[in-house]
Structures are given as structure tokens and as C-alpha cells.
Amino acid sequence: MTTASYTVRKWVKPEDLNQHGTLFGGSLLRWIDEEAAICAIFQLGNDRLVTKFISEINFVSSAVQGDLIEMNFSVVKFGRTSITLSCHVRNVLTRDEVLTISTIVFVGLGSDGLPVAHGLTDATQGSERVPFRESRRLG
Ligand SMILES: CC(C)(COP(=O)(O)OP(=O)(O)OC[C@H]1O[C@@H](n2cnc3c(N)ncnc32)[C@H](O)[C@@H]1OP(=O)(O)O)[C@@H](O)C(=O)NCCC(=O)NCCS
Fold first, then answer.
1. Does ligand 1 have an atom closer than 6 angstroms to the CB of 32?
2. Structural Rg of the chain based on CA atoms
3. For ligand 1, is residue 40 a contact (CB within 6 Å)?
4. What's any one GO cellular component for it (predicted)?
5. 0.90 cut: is pTM over it?
């Protein structure tokens, strides 16, 4: 299978911190879920998808305000209606690993809200599968 990876970086801001002044785990998980979903949309060409499964998460280090967090997603496999990604997160400034998630599964849904076969077996590094929408430019 063609490999594909997707990297996104976040700057840790005051609203991302917990009561101890370090990165709130919930903020990081929200970023991961959202960015993984975007990655899955690029791969499946379907923006009606849901997170089905996230495997064990072991937070091995943290971050503080001003740190740069890098999330890297890789396509693990295509199923019939699903796609499986993995995620590696590191703190760019300290070079420390923050966490690794081996399995994040998204399921593509049809207009009836039920899983729909995507017919894909290979990953793409491009954006050609992203669904097309009419322009919203005025005039
Ligand atoms: C996603 C959902 C429609 C799937 O329904 P379902 O009855 O499990 O459907 P299926 O049994 O046909 O499984 C669909 C796919 O999910 C996979 N799947 C189901 N349970 C799984 C699990 N525990 N772990 C990993 N994959 C799983 C199946 O293998 C299948 O993939 P494939 O077609 O590529 O082989 C349903 O579970 C649902 O709506 N869940 C809630 C999703 C949600 O709200 N997420 C959070 C907000 S985005």
C-alpha cells in the first residue's frame, strides 16, 4: 500500500492548559480527533465520517504554554467502510515524545447515516479526493 502521512503543528496557548499549567489532555485529544478526521476525509473523500475506535493512549510527557506540538498521522489500512490511522505526537521544542496512538478508526457514512463502502485500498498524499462544494464567493 502507498504510504501517506499528514503532519500538523499547534502552539500551546493559555486556553489549552490545565489547572497545573501544563497542556490539558482533553485539548490534545480534541486536536488529535479533529486532525485525524481531516486526514481521513482527505483519504476517503467523504466528509460524513465518524470516529469509531481509538486505542490505548499513554501520555508519556507534557508541554507548557508556548511549546510547539507536532502531530503526525499515518494511514495504517483501509477496510471496507473504514480507515485506520496511527498518530505520533511530539513536543518540537523539547524533542520529547508526548504520546503514540496505534489505532484510530474512522467509518465513512452514507446519506442514510449507515456505513458505506469506499472501494479504496491505497493512500494518497494529495487532496484530489476531497469532496467538491460549490464556491461560496459572493458576486
Ligand atoms: C460508526 C457506526 C455507524 C458503525 O456501526 P456498526 O454497526 O458498528 O457498523 P459495522 O459493524 O458495519 O462496522 C463498520 C466498520 O467499523 C469497524 N468497527 C466496528 N467496531 C469496531 C471496533 N470496535 N474497533 C475497530 N473497528 C470497528 C468495522 O470493522 C467496520 O469496518 P470495515 O467495514 O472497514 O470492515 C456506529 O457504531 C456509530 O454510529 N457509532 C458512533 C460514532 C460516533 O458518534 N463517534 C463519535 C463522534 S464523531
1. no
2. 16
3. no
4. cytosol
5. yes
Cβ proximity of 58 and 118 under 8 Å: no
For the domain spanning 5-108, the CATH number is 3.10.129.10
Q: Which atom of ligand 1 is nearest to the CA of 103?
A: 25
Q: For a ligand 1 pocket test, name from 30, 34, 43, 52 the mutation site with the most ligand atoms within 8 angstroms of its C-beta.
A: 52
Contact 47, 34 (CB under 8 A): no
Q: Compute the distance from residue 132 Cα to the ligand 1 centre, in Å.
A: 25
Evaluate the CA torsion angle 76, 35, 48, 139 in order and state its sign: negative
User: Could you tell me the three cell numbers for 82?
Assistant: 473504514
